[in-house]
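Supplementary material to the annual report.
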Amino acid sequence: MIWGRVWASRSASTHLTAIEMATRRQLLAGLLATSLVPRHSWADAGNPAFLSAAGLPGGGYALCGISDALDVVFRIPLPARGHAAAAHPARAEAVAFARRPGTFALVIDCRSGKVLAKLQAPADRHFYGHGAFSADGTRLYTTENDYEAAEGRIGIWDVNAGYRRVGDISSGGIGPHDIKRLPGTETLVIANGGIETHPDSGRSKLNLPTMRPNLSYIEDRQITEQIELDTKLHRNSIRHLAVSKTSSVAFAMQWQGDKIDAPLLGVHKRGQAPRLATAPADDWRAMQGYAGSVAFSADGEQIALTSPRGGIVQFYDQRDATLQQTLQMADACGVAPTQDKLVITSGTGTIQTLSGQTVQNDDLLWDNHLIPV
Amino acid sequence: MRLILALVALLPLPALADSTRSIVDEHILPGFAALAETTQTLQNTAAETCTRGDPLNTAYNAAFDAWITVSHLRFGPTEQEDRAFALAFWPDSRGATPKALSRLIANADPVAETADTYAEVSIAARGFFALEFLLYDAAFADQGDADYRCQLIQTITADIAAVSDAMQQDWQNDYAAKLIEPSADSPYRTPAEATQELFKALNTGLQFTSENRLGRPLGTFDKPRPNRAEARRSARSLRHVELSLTSLKSLALALAADAPDIQEKLDQRFTKAIDVAARVDDPSFAGVADPGTRIKVEALQSAVESIRQAVALDLGPRLGVSVGFNALDGD
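Predicted assembly:
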């Protein structure tokens, strides 16, 4: 075992009720049935199944909604390059984050394209490009860099008060990047990438020899479990997360060094030891030390790991985290579950499902992440 | 000559291999040989005298020059066992180097008795930046016991020489061949992969100079950070920019050997940046808060950025190593 469980304290029971186990769509259906439907739902925005930021070939950037049929159902201009987005659980609202080290995020009404609110990072902070909503959609959580203190923070925003900032808490490490909520709970899981940056020096990495990434779980504003890599793997920056319906957390990593066959995927379940994925050295090498996104398939059977640098997508069996197959796809990065297992987007404008359905958008360069609505 | 170049351009793979061979022979191996030699001199000098000032400072400057000249070649033997960081722990945003040194001195820690044991201490207490504190910083002039400080200087220089020698040996005896002759067992399977490694070194070297060597002291107009300049205690900040530009220029021109138009453009932009650097009359960037000095340092950063642009938009595509929207993003 090359991983160590640093510390953990058990939290309140995570027993899930039937409704908590339901998917977001089922939950919405439930809301409809009980006439608790929000004022404006995602149906009013063309029923996107996914959100993705995009670059435009002539310059300029956009946030797009993509339907189950892989059609672009809306396209809203963004003032600068985006990264990821967060979709409100019920209302047709998306939070589009500027690319790191951006200091703003826009809350967009996806029906009209209107900016409903602008989130401004506090002084000496910037966003990392990811965020997550609470289950009821009343709180938004954002990963942030307190760059003078070199500490990761999670900003907390009151959605119903017009996305007013109401506080912040420690992320449990340096360089928090992705943040997800475990289904049916208010538990947040955070990928603390471990890399210190400061806007004065752009995106330069300031602490590679001493970096220590971790995976942190936050419940009720407290860090209740934290997983750290073995010191031999301290250069493996934990960046992106996917959460299964049964709360397995898949984490995608980026190797910050010269070694070229480091494993770039791990799977963790609360209270257990994490497991690193296994693949032949040549397959890790083909990823070029860089995983861009990670997703579970809709049936939970597979984990997809993209590498835009390698121009490939790897698929792992979630049971034992072993490599099953590899797909060649230039500049592939965004990936998300769909009814047909998995869908992948690329910087060349391609959207492709695992079964081979392909849509080419020549006027859109799909950015890093594909976010399920 | 023109005809030969045209023929070479029709044979991209052998051309890439030829350019890699010349970069190894003329850029990489001589650079590491100079590092091994000057760090050996530094060790020998410190063994004779550990008094601040000359001849120790001269030896320190010569060896540090040699390191900066090869410091962009961060792959293979340079990266192994964190050797590059063992020579140069910078940026040190948390002040780890002075803290680690003070702790050693306060405890007169016997770990400093030999270079072998010293290789186990915090990486922040090793290398040129640790040595710079001991040789130039007022706070370390009389801290603790003089004999211990002397031993620390001798051991740090011996460690620097040992790390440099290991790099040189590995480059000379092993890794140079791997880069020149890609194969299934080599870290590089094709000449294109070797070229990509060299291109990456050029790119990240330029990025480091622009964002760290210049960006950190510049800070923002409202909050300039002169205390964050690299090696400011020995007034080497500007010199590092100049040394890195000169070295990166030779790498860039060699990579562009088969593309005369791009080579000329790169030559012009590097020459311009080196000229701009020569007009910055502030070796430690202490004046970044002064508008007159600041504008010159900003102009230098712009000149380096214009090189980066030509490398990314012209050289990369010509070498076939340009990368996509997401591949380039790195997040």
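The longest helix of chain B spans residues 12-48.
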